[in-house]
Structure formats: structure tokens, C-alpha cells
């Protein structure tokens, strides 16, 4: 599913095409997404898009008449296309712009969302309880050590908890733990400060590399120009059966927190 790097890639791809553009019309062909698409979004016809920001896995599109809050769910993607171009299968929303282009939202599984907020979207109930951004200075070893204290949960489950830190999805949790040499099953409270520092550094490195490569495409995700994300070619353990690229031992696959988890039992302790 699209995680932080994919959403950030989408934001960067869309921004040059939508900032300062006027919304001419919003067409919704399938209003039943994760939550029903609110009729209030139609109030933004003729509104000008002033900003496009990201918080966690949400895209926040600010206009002079309110905000659109987008979430890509498990299979969503957003593209810029000519307004006259034919729609694709599973394309549920089209935002027609004043320059003849359009934003197309496609979501085969329909677990994504489009919501409306009249006021500052960071006060929306979906956003108020989120943890810090992993690439920000607020996510550091002091913070992570406090979160790990007295926690018996596995470290992989902890760093995937959006109340602890946002955007570290399954792929990036596996890759970050491999890069830091930490077994995903290790109890959070048992990890030393030195190893937590390596994990913080690894999370930042892996996420930044994924953004630089346009995210990871395993099934449905595409960038705003329709191209896939290329970070899949840099994966070391996630979905990589066979030998560890460091030691040559077999990569193990287990289920942890109801998620497939890949790691090397020799390199990760």
C-alpha cells in the first residue's frame, strides 16, 4: 500500500501542476470509498489551490475556500492528465483544472478517501493524534528511547504505530531494521540507546532513499506521471526470497503483527 515515500512522491509530482490553478469542476463517479465522499467538496468549484502539503500519509490540498484531505488507502494513486483524456478503470474522482488538465484519483480497492475540512486540516480528528514525522528533527533517539521504555511490544510493531511515528510502513520497517541490524521480534524495551540511534538513522536513510527513487511499486502504485516507483530495485530483505545480500544466509519470512516480515537472523540480533 502507498506509504510515506509514495505519498510524498505524489505530492511532489502534483505540486507544479496544481498550485495556483483554479478548480473548474469536481466529478465523483464512485462516492463510496473508505468513507463516503462528502457533497461539501462541491463548494470548492471555482476555488484556487494555494498549497499541497503532506502529513503522514495524508495529502492536504489547501484552497481559498477550504481543504481537501486525500488518502491513497491500499491501492490508490493520483495522476495529472488532460481533462479530455478517457478515464481508466477504477478511476473514481476527477478534479478538472482551469488549464485543461485534471487530477485523476484511481483506487481499485476503494480503501482510500477524499474528505473536506473548512478549517486547518491538522485539527481534523484523523490527524490530531499522529506521531512525529520520521524525517523531522522531532524524531530522534531521545524520543524513540522514551517510546520504547517499558514497552514489551516487538520493535517492528512499535515503529509501525502511527501514534509513535508516522509513515514507517511494512516495507520500510523491514528495510530499516535490516539496515540497523535489529531483529524485528526484539522487545522494544530491551534495545540499547546506541542501537536505537542506528535505527533512527536507518529509518531516515531508507525513507529518504525511497523518496529519491519515486517510492516503491509492488502492485498498484504509480507516480503522478504514471511511472512506477523504482525503490523496489533497492530492497534488501522485503519480498526477497533467497540469500541475505550481506552474509548469504537465507532471508526468513514470518508473520508479526499480522504482517509479513522479512529479516536475516544472522545479521539482525
Short description:
By secondary structure, the protein is of the alpha+beta class. The protein has helices at residues 4-18, 141-148, 155-159, 170-180, 193-212, and strands at residues 23-28, 49-55, 58-63, 66-71, 77-82, 91-97, 101-106, 113-117, 252-256, 259-263.
Assigned CATH architecture of the largest domain = Orthogonal Bundle
Order of helices and strands: HEEEEEEEEHHHHEE
Largest sheet: 4 strands, antiparallel
Helix content: 10-25%
Q: Briefly, what CATH class of the largest domain? A: Mainly Alpha
Overall outline = elongated
Mean pLDDT: 92
Question: Which structural traits does this protein have?
Answer:
about 270 residues; N-terminal domain of MutM-like DNA repair proteins; Helicase, Ruva Protein, domain 3; four-stranded antiparallel beta sheet
Kindly describe this structure:
It is a single chain. The chain contains 5 helices and 10 strands; from the N terminus they run αββββββββααααββ. With 269 residues, it is α+β, with helices and mostly antiparallel strands. The chain has a 4-stranded antiparallel β-sheet with strand order 1-6-7-5, covered by helices on one side. It has a 4-stranded antiparallel β-sheet with strand order 2-3-4-8, with helices on one face. A two-stranded antiparallel ribbon has the order 9-10. Strand 9 and strand 10 form a beta hairpin. The longest helix is centred in the C-terminal third of the chain and has 20 residues.
Secondary-structure blueprint of this entry?
Blueprint: H1 4-18, E1 23-28, E2 49-55, E3 58-63, E4 66-71, E5 77-82, E6 91-97, E7 101-106, E8 113-117, H2 141-148, H3 155-159, H4 170-180, H5 193-212, E9 252-256, E10 259-263
Antiparallel strand pairs: 1-6, 2-3, 3-4, 4-8, 5-7, 6-7, 9-10
Helix pairs in contact: 1-5, 2-5, 4-5
Amino acid at each position: 500500500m502507498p506509504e510515506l515515500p509514495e505519498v510524498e512522491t505524489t505530492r511532489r509530482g502534483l505540486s507544479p501542476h496544481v498550485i495556483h490553478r483554479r478548480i473548474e469542476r469536481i466529478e465523483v463517479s464512485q462516492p463510496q470509498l473508505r468513507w463516503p465522499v462528502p457533497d461539501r467538496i462541491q463548494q470548492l468549484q471555482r476555488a484556487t489551490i494555494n498549497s499541497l502539503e503532506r502529513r503522514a500519509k495524508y495529502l492536504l490540498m489547501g484552497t481559498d475556500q477550504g481543504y481537501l484531505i486525500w488518502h491513497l488507502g491500499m491501492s490508490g494513486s493520483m495522476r495529472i492528465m488532460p481533462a479530455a483524456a478517457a478515464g481508466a478503470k477504477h478511476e473514481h474522482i476527477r478534479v478538472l483544472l482551469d488549464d485543461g488538465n485534471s487530477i485523476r484519483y484511481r483506487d481499485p480497492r476503494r480503501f482510500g478517501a477524499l474528505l473536506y475540512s473548512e478549517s486547518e486540516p491538522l485539527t481534523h480528528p484523523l490527524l490530531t493524534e499522529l506521531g512525529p514525522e520520521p524525517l523531522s528533527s522531532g524524531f530522534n533517539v531521545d524520543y524513540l528511547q522514551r517510546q520504547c521504555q517499558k514497552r514489551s511490544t516487538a520493535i517492528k510493531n512499535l515503529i509501525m504505530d502511527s501514534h509513535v511515528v508516522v509513515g514507517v510502513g511494512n516495507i520500510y520497517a523491514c528495510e530499516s531494521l535490516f539496515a540497523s541490524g535489529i531483529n524485528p521480534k526484539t522487545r522494544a524495551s530491551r534495545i540499547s540507546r546506541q542501537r536505537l540511534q542506528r535505527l533512527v538513522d536507518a529509518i531516515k536513510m531508507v525513507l529518504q532513499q525511497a523518496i529519491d527513487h519515486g517510492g516503491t511499486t509492488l502492485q498498484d502504485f504509480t507516480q503522478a506521471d504514471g511511472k512506477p516507483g523504482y525503490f523496489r530495485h533497492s530492497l534488501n530483505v522485503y519480498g526477497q526470497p533467497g540469500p541475505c545480500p550481506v552474509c548469504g544466509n537465507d532471508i526468513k519470512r514470518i508473520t508479526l503483527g499480522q504482517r509479513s516480515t522479512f529479516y536475516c537472523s544472522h545479521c539482525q540480533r
